[in-house]
TrEMBL record:
Family to which the UniProt record says this protein belongs: Belongs to the cytochrome b5 family.
Organism (species): Petromyzon marinus (Sea lamprey)
Subcellular location: Membrane
Keyword flag Oxidoreductase: no
Lineage: Eukaryota, Metazoa, Chordata, Craniata, Vertebrata
An annotated GO cellular component: membrane
Domain Cytochrome b5 heme-binding: 16-93
InterPro entries on file: Cyt_B5-like_heme/steroid-bd, Cyt_B5-like_heme/steroid_sf, Cytochrome_b5
Protein name: Cytochrome b5 type B
Transmembrane residue ranges: 121-140
UniProt entry keywords in alphabetical sequence: Electron transport, Heme, Iron, Membrane, Metal-binding, Transmembrane, Transmembrane helix, Transport
Matches recorded under Pfam families: Cyt-b5
Length: 146
C-alpha cells in the first residue's frame, strides 16, 4: 500500500505521496481505511464517514475508487469542498490522472447560438432598417413629430 513516490512541490508546500489507483483500491472498507479519489487527489474519509451529511453508505460505495463524478453529480456546496483538505492524504500518479482539477462550472448563456448564425445578425440589421425608415420619413417631413 505504500506510496510510490514523494511529490516534489517546492519547500513551502507539504510533500504528499503519489498513489496509483491500485494503491487506493486497497483502502476500500472500514477495516483498511476508506480512501476516495476526487479530482486526481486522494482522500482518507475514514474519520468522516459518520459525519457525512449524505450518509456513510455513499462514501463506502465509492471507497477505493474514483468518486469525482458522483461527488460532482450531487453538486456539493462550497462548504463541503472546504472540508476536503483535512482529509487529503496524497495525489494520483501523473500517469493515472484524468486532469479534472477544474471545479468551476461554466454556464453558457448563448442558448446554443453558433458563431456566424444568421440569428446573430437579425437584431442589428432590423434595428438599422427601422432607423433608416424613420430617418427617411423625417427627411420627407422634418417638421412633423416622429
Ligand atoms: C471527502 C468527500 C466528501 C465531503 C467532504 C462531503 C461533504 C458533504 C457535505 C458537507 C454535504 C452537505 C451538503 C453540502 O454542503 O453540499 C454532503 C451531502 C451529500 N453528499 Fe457528500 N461529501 C463527500 C463525498 C461524497 C461522495 C463521494 C458522494 C458520492 C455519492 C457524496 C454524496 C453526498 C450526498 C448524496 C449528499 C446529500 C445531498 C442532499 O441531501 O441534498 N458525498 N456531502
Amino acid at each position: 500500500m505504500a506510496a510510490c513516490e514523494e511529490q516534489q512541490m517546492g519547500d513551502a508546500a507539504p510533500r504528499l505521496p503519489l498513489y496509483r489507483r491500485a494503491d487506493v483500491k486497497l483502502h476500500n472498507d472500514t477495516a483498511s481505511g476508506t480512501w476516495i479519489i476526487l479530482h486526481d487527489s486522494v482522500y482518507d474519509v475514514s474519520s468522516f464517514l459518520d459525519q457525512h451529511p449524505g450518509g456513510e453508505e455513499v462514501l463506502l460505495e465509492q471507497a477505493g475508487g474514483d468518486g469525482t463524478e458522483s461527488f460532482e453529480d450531487v453538486g456539493h456546496s462550497r462548504d463541503a469542498r472546504e472540508l476536503l483538505p483535512q482529509y487529503l492524504v496524497g495525489h494520483l500518479h501523473p500517469d493515472e490522472r484524468k486532469n479534472t482539477e477544474t471545479k468551476d462550472i461554466f454556464i453558457t448563456t448563448t442558448g446554443g447560438l453558433k458563431a456566424g448564425s444568421w440569428t446573430n445578425w437579425l437584431v442589428p440589421v432590423v434595428s438599422i432598417f427601422v432607423i433608416l425608415v424613420m430617418y427617411h420619413f423625417y427627411l420627407a417631413d422634418p417638421g412633423k413629430d416622429l
